[in-house]
Design brief:
The protein has six helices and six strands; from the N terminus they run E-H-E-H-H-E-H-E-H-E-H-E.
């Protein structure tokens, strides 16, 4: 089996429309990609090459990337945090009753990164979020790591899905 350095690894949180397409495209480009989601049934289906959404060519892209061992799926979020230098947050941000974005899933990923990461990573927010969310993600990671007395270096950037 080929050995890969961490610098080529990408973690994508969320196996929905944004996360799954993002993960598949990076795998096609040759990166080692680990797509993490809390939905065990969805991860089991994806691991077996069954794609729950339709995008033209996506199923073939995913099955090919799995066969080439470029794309894997997991529910082990702690392992996902340690896997990739590049950490893409692509989880859902459903609307609240008042129309604002529900950021609880984005913030949960940020907290998990703060809990489990040990060395530098680049956190990339791809979820649909309001302005200043990157600042909040940064603060959550920092506070969580500091509370556990294990601060580490990281950067947070935004890459909205429409880009």
């Amino acid at each position: 089996m080929e050995t890969y350095t961490k610098k080529l690894n990408i973690t994508v949180y969320g196996a929905g429309y944004v996360g799954l397409v993002t993960a598949a495209c990076f795998a096609k480009l040759g990166y080692q990609v680990l797509c993490a989601d809390v939905n065990a049934d969805k991860i089991a289906e994806l691991s077996n090459g069954r794609v729950p959404i339709y995008e033209p060519g996506l199923e073939e892209l995913i099955t090919d990337s799995i066969a080439k061992q470029k794309l894997r799926f997991t529910t082990d979020i702690a392992a996902a945090v340690e896997f990739g230098l590049y950490q893409f947050i692509a989880v859902g941000t459903p609307s609240k009753q008042d129309g604002s974005a529900d950021l609880q899933y984005v913030f949960n990923v940020a907290k998990t990164i703060g809990e489990h990461r040990k060395d530098y990573c680049l956190v990339i927010n791809k979820s649909t979020v309001p302005v200043n969310t990157a600042d909040q993600v940064n603060l959550i990671i920092q506070e969580t790591a500091n509370q556990l007395n294990k601060p580490f270096n990281y950067s947070v950037v935004s890459n909205p899905e429409f880009l």
